[in-house]
Write a structure and sequence with these properties.
7 helices
């Protein structure tokens, strides 16, 4: 199936894409983000606030070892993570419904280079002060009666689409 070993994965080039989790409370959601990050071969996951960190048996249930291949950092405060990324030259997007948000497709059409996306708490979303500190917002258009999706599902959609854009 062409899968990389852990050593080969760690040595492989990664996409310049970082996922920032802002107070995501579910260990299973955090694990799912790690697993998708591994699949897309993104650079790193930044865990902030109440997010659990590896090693964690509940996180491992969904990450299935991806927490050992994907680089990660922990920040007590998400705002600190956003500012650090911006200082490192990343364009940082909050994935959040906002008045001036661009659609995921609009961002994918123009994305180039170091990119980070911030995804928020399962109930409260991305903290407003974090949204305000980001360079822009990404919104995934939704056409049903619900106006939100599970954070790990959203992360998967965003990682997939931006990773495809960054590969081209």
């Amino acid at each position: 199936m062409g899968r990389l070993s852990v050593a080969d994965y760690r040595a492989a080039d990664k996409l310049p894409l970082v996922v920032v989790l802002d107070n995501v409370r579910s260990q299973h959601n955090v694990g799912a983000v790690f697993r998708t990050a591994d699949a897309m071969r993104i650079e790193r996951v930044d865990l902030c606030g109440i997010c659990c960190c590896p090693p964690n048996p509940e996180l491992h249930k969904t990450a299935l070892g991806a927490e050992e291949t994907v680089e990660w950092r922990y920040f007590k405060d998400t705002l600190e993570a956003v500012r650090a990324l911006q200082a490192e030259g990343y364009t940082v997007y909050a994935v959040e419904q906002a008045h001036d948000a661009s659609t995921l497709e609009e961002v994918a059409a123009r994305v180039a280079g170091k990119t980070a996306v911030v995804l928020g708490h399962e109930v409260f979303g991305v903290q407003q002060e974090v949204v305000d500190a980001c360079d822009a917002c990404i919104e995934i258009p939704q056409y049903g009666t619900k106006h939100s999706m599970n954070v790990s599902v959203t992360a998967g959609i965003v990682m997939y689409r931006l990773s495809e854009a960054l590969r081209s």
